[in-house]
From TrEMBL:
Origin organism lineage: Eukaryota, Viridiplantae, Streptophyta, Embryophyta, Tracheophyta
Lineage top rank: taxon: Eukaryota
Active site feature: H53, E118, H122
Keywords on record: Disulfide bond, Endonuclease, Hydrolase, Lyase, Nuclease, Signal
This protein's GO CC annotations: extracellular region
Protein name from the UniProt record: Ribonuclease 2, putative
Naturally occurring in which organism (per UniProt): Theobroma cacao (Cacao)
Length: 237
């Protein structure tokens, strides 16, 4: 009996490896508008709260994004996924919330174009290939549930923080480690995104540690990372 179970487990693992399908988790990427918006890149007013960049399925084995749907080279689902050009009608009931929490910060792109890009790149091979409404709702719900730095000691200011202070503040608040992603403006490292990781589920709700600690322009616990205030607050200093 036990031998049968072992054989079944080995076969299941082998078939996963052969098919290239491994399990994934979800990464919610929240961006800090004052860091994303260089001079004149964004429309005004620039939001003063974290906004959504995306909800990304990431392979557990290597923390790389699940690649986008392709009918010949990456047919990741048995259902027919909703095409990016078709998402607006299903998103109508949540469009106001999306405009508020998931705006395209960069004014060269409309909100709808940004959502289509995220859907095409990350949504069509998620657990919601034909349910854009549910995929976007999952991201909205997580964002309203988890405001990673609210109520912590880490607040926007001119003086930088050590990168580890930001990570630890979030771990203390949420119980799990985030990924911190940074940008650089004239040699100053800035906090650009906070990424929270969730176990794969429909919808994702259970937080897990993010496998990657730092990405892009930060790489080390000791990096000096600025969490810049919104522009008008800068002028007040
Ligand atoms: P990904 O395509 O993997 O979701 O994210 C990377 C891309 O998202 C980059 O090309 C970056 O410029 C873009 N991006 C990040 N934030 C925004 C935004 O607020 N609006 C738009 N249009 N693109 C964004």
């Amino acid at each position: 009996m036990q031998r049968h179970l072992l054989v079944a487990a080995v076969l299941a693992t082998l078939s996963l490896l052969v098919s290239g399908q491994t399990d994934f988790f979800y990464k919610l990427s929240l961006q800090w508008p004052p860091s994303v918006c260089g001079p004149s890149q964004c429309g005004s007013p620039i939001p003063r709260t974290f906004t959504i960049h995306g909800l990304w399925p990431q392979f557990v084995t290597n923390d790389r994004p699940v690649p986008p749907y392709n009918p010949t080279t990456n047919k990741c689902t048995n259902v027919t996924p909703t095409a990016p050009g078709q998402i607006l009608v299903p998103l109508k009931p949540i469009q106001d919330q999306l405009n508020e929490l998931w705006p395209s910060l960069l004014k060269q792109t409309t909100n709808v174009a940004f959502w289509r890009h995220e859907w095409e790149k990350h949504g069509m091979c998620s657990d919601y290939p034909d349910k854009p409404h549910d995929y976007f709702t999952a991201a909205l719900d997580l964002t309203t549930t988890y405001n990673p730095l609210e109520g912590t000691e880490v607040k926007p200011r001119q003086d930088p923080y050590k990168a580890i202070e930001i990570r630890e503040a979030i771990k203390a608040k949420l119980g799990k480690y985030p990924e911190i992603s940074c940008g650089k403006v004239s040699n100053t490292i800035q906090l650009k995104e906070i990424r929270l990781c969730f176990e794969r589920a429909k919808p994702p709700v259970v937080l897990r540690d993010c496998p990657t600690k730092y990405s892009n322009q930060c790489s080390d616990d000791d990096n000096q990372v600025k969490f810049p205030p919104a522009t008008s607050e800068v002028l007040e200093f």
